[in-house]
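Exam prep: given the inputs below (a chain plus pyridoxal-5'-phosphate), describe the expected output before reading on.
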Amino acid sequence: MKTLYSQLPAIDSLLRDPAMQPLLLQSGTAFTTRQLRAMQQEARTHIQQHQTLPGWHLNWPEEAQRRAQQQQQSALRPVFNLTGTVLHTNLGRAQLSARAIEAVTACLRQPVTLEYALDDASRGHRDRAVSALLCELTGAEAACIVNNNAAAVLLMLAALAPGREVIVSRGELVEIGGAFRIPDVMRQAGCQLVEVGTTNRTHLKDYRAGISDNSGLLMKVHTSNYQIQGFTHAVAEAELVALAAQHQLPVITDLGSGSLIDMTAFHLPAEPMPQQLIAAGVDLVSFSGDKLLGGPQAGIIVGKQALIDRLQQHPLKRALRVDKMTLAALEATLQLYRQPETLREALPTLRLLTRSPHEILQQAERLMPALEHAYGADFSLNIAACSSQIGSGSLPVERLPSFAITFSPRESHGSSLDALAQRWRALSQPVIGRIQEGRLWLDLRCLEDEAALIRTLTT
Ligand SMILES: *Cc1c(COP(=O)(O)O)cnc(C)c1O
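Solution:
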């Protein structure tokens, strides 16, 4: 044992070792020394527990280099999203357009007129550029941008109905993954929830009966991540607006995803559009920046000027406001919507959602030979039809026909699929698929760089 400990190299001599010089140059003395100390400690523990030296003992410089590289990798690793879910919340939702990426980098390199009006050098408003675009695209009078749609809902409620009752249909008391639940947000905003109607049917008379002297507003929530089917009834926004007007109450809608374009024109399932609700007279409509819109994480509120002014003046707005990167990305994304003809090419979300099954099948056929060659000995590979999802609670029931390459183990060891999935997660650019029915599926809908995938999976 003693002799094993004495074989551990001294930190000083390692630091002088010529093989250590590249790491020292790249990472500095302090970092490298910390790294070597940690390795030394680990080696001692290894000797204590196993009475042997660790495997990497033969080459300390190489091991130190390998560990340094691993540590310097970003925790936000780029991955191949072959899960089949286009707007995958855990993988960062929308991929931004080239225009948005350029806009963000430009605003980071130089000072920008974030809150500065060039005509008279006065203080401008940070939401103004994006507001003008949003008004143009949705027909609204004004807009307000916050950190995400959850923040948008919180701000609308806190600013418009503090201490008052908010009337919502029982069928619309949504929970959006994790901590966002309409009743909880109400409480946080200081509002009192008044549930009307039933889970499957809510009528105008239910809203009417729910209105009292303490009502603050009427709220509609788009049931974005579930669908109630069968014997159902919900009140259309226009009807609700007419009722609310009789009582001088505003109507607000949390649209969740929302889409500024008619999705059916792209052969995609219909999704409500903010401009339709504005036209129906809804006072405020909120939706996400990084769902179907295809932009950065943000909460977008459009609607009546007087109400937007109240949101802008509320102290919460300061806490929930977005930074220049978000505004730059959002502005560039919205500008793309001015040219619907080129939107499908320019906006990655729409480009991926609208890929035809035929095109994806052809891609699978192109990839097969190289993957067969690399994995064919241990796995049986097949091209199989599958269904992609839009994701992020958008259009939960609808599926998009797609194709996957599937891997099933030649000998049916249950664990080898998990081992393969794990190996792919450890790659320089991890490849994320899904395991289902005893196969590992790589849904190719979101694969744009074929050559990079082949390189990653076969070298
Ligand atoms: C997604 C969603 C939210 C939350 O939006 P984030 O941008 O993720 O904060 C709120 N309400 C509805 C109906 C949603 O679909």
